What does this fold into?
Amino acid sequence: MSTRLELPPDLLDGHRPPLTARADGEARSAILQLAQLTDRGECLDAAQQAVQLLRADVYDLRLAGVYLVGLFVERGVAHLPELLRCTRRLLAHEAAAPPPLRTAPRVVDTTLQWLFQALFTHTQFHAQRRDETWTEWLQCGDPDLPAAVAGEIEQLTRAIGELVEQPACTGVLGRIGRWVTGDLARALGRTAKDAAAKAEVEASAAEAKAKAVEAKAVEPESDAEEEEEELVEEDDFDEHDDHEHTDDDFDDHDDHDDHDHDTHEHHGGFDGRPAPPRLRAPALDEHESPALASLRHKLHGFQVLVQRGELAKAAIVARDVQQIIERFDPVEFLPSLFAGYFRTMSRHLDELLPHLGEPDGTPWQVLSRFYQADLDGFIEE
It folds into this structure.
């Protein structure tokens, strides 16, 4: 992330009255250039220049929008609730301004539509690329963020409705809300779950390592005791080496062996220590595929081996799991998920074939980009 912008207090505190100095023709031309700079992806540079104009008491809702886009690019999705609150305060300033200085409702609507579309486009770009910025968003994201954004969007939508009749900008704002409470919420949930699982594995590995170190520290004393016992047994054997054994002696010896064998089974091992936990396969779902059941078994086995401290065996399982991940075929592991898709495809294959050829032409490209940018809107419209 870049160095954070210094926030102009007149833009965010919401306690001062609306500014009376509106943008003149020269300033409006500069604001238009900053908006174009933002559209080209140079959002931070445009926002830095917007800061200078805002500090000079040049006020325009479009100028504030340029600044807010840059602020979002810099701080990410975690800043969305504050950004939406700031937008709502700007609308309150507009409503409180004298009529000659108030921005026309149509301009308010188009400016907010530009702002929300810029935010939505930026989120979709990084969400689809799964790049470093997306990773940072998920790592820094609060699990309560989707609910906070949804609440702010609800309040902002009401504020827009009070100022603009039949606004178009709320459509894009709603898409942001659906993405945040849908895709982003699921991604944040998976990230939190993976982090918890990783912490649990690391804790188990650390505990197993500590137990191994402790056991190794005790081993020399145990070995010495075993050697002493062996010497005593050898002496006893030498003393009775010349003794003539009878059939009763051999019978007694056999009974003693049987008793020892039972004792060893009772304690779990010949060293008297409890037997290590046996690997039990996780409960299987009758609807899951054999490939998924096998994978779940291996994942469970890996955790058991790590807990036992048998890291060499765990590494063998880990290598196998990594190979499965690299050549992962979702249809093989989740056939029920795709069953409906293939069933519908097979039933309507003849009708679909003319549209499944090589994509060509502007209509296909436009629809394809619409699909990639906004799946909900693509399906709804």
Q: What stands out?
A: The two ends are 36 Å apart (CA to CA).
